[in-house]
Design the sequence.
């Protein structure tokens, strides 16, 4: 099946700094990728939809100036958490569909962010 | 996407068959039913998808009654490695749309 990778798999940063998380589709092109956030013992919550070559679409309550998304190519989307705070500590997961029509969405392994 | 309701948790023992039922009363005519599995600190993984009746693959079976208002994921002879959270999702073209995850069912398999 199609593979989605994320880098880094975990990161620890200090409060006030910025962190970039990469999401790559390794063997397929993805015009659209999705970013989810998951807090411990909770379900995945959609943060934003990343569209290649255009602005991301953010879900209600997600600050677009804090969570910067760039989908510069058909295989790479990045999520930058700016001015991170401890409450941003979470598990960030990206995903993409491989083909159209598609029934299976491929998820990355996730990135554990800890802000101290 | 249609709202789904699943049990919060289930317990089982190795070697048993586990059936997880999901309710989706407002499923639309063209919606498919998809199940994902998630291990701790990993992204979800596709298990199975179906539209009606029964679908079987190498890891699970999916039973869907005629009214399609519910579905049952069946895991035969579970092992400790099947301990995970299982999510039921309902919708169209779910591979390319943002997914709305419910609370999922946390399955704990005991030795």
Sequence:
């Amino acid at each position: 099946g199609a593979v989605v990778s994320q880098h880094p798999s975990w990161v620890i940063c200090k409060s006030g700094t910025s962190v970039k998380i990469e999401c790559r589709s390794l063997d397929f092109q993805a015009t659209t990728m999705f970013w989810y956030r998951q807090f411990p013992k909770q379900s995945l919550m959609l943060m934003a939809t990343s569209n290649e070559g255009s602005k991301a679409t953010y879900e209600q309550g997600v600050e677009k100036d804090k969570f910067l998304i760039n989908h510069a190519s058909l295989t790479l989307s990045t999520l930058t958490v700016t001015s991170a705070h401890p409450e941003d500590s979470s598990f960030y997961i990206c995903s993409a569909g491989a083909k159209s029509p598609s029934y299976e969405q491929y998820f990355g392994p996730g990135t554990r962010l800890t802000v101290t | 996407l249609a709202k789904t309701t699943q049990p919060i948790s289930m317990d089982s023992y190795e070697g048993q068959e586990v059936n997880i039922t999901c309710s989706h009363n407002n499923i639309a005519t063209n919606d498919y039913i998809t199940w994902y599995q998630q291990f701790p600190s990993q992204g979800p993984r596709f298990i199975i998808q179906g539209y009606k009746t029964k679908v079987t693959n190498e890891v699970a079976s999916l039973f869907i009654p005629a009214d399609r208002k519910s579905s049952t994921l069946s895991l035969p002879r579970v092992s400790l490695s099947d301990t995970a959270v299982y999510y039921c999702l309902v919708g169209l073209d779910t591979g390319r749309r943002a997914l709305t995850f419910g609370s999922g069912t946390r399955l704990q398999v005991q030795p």
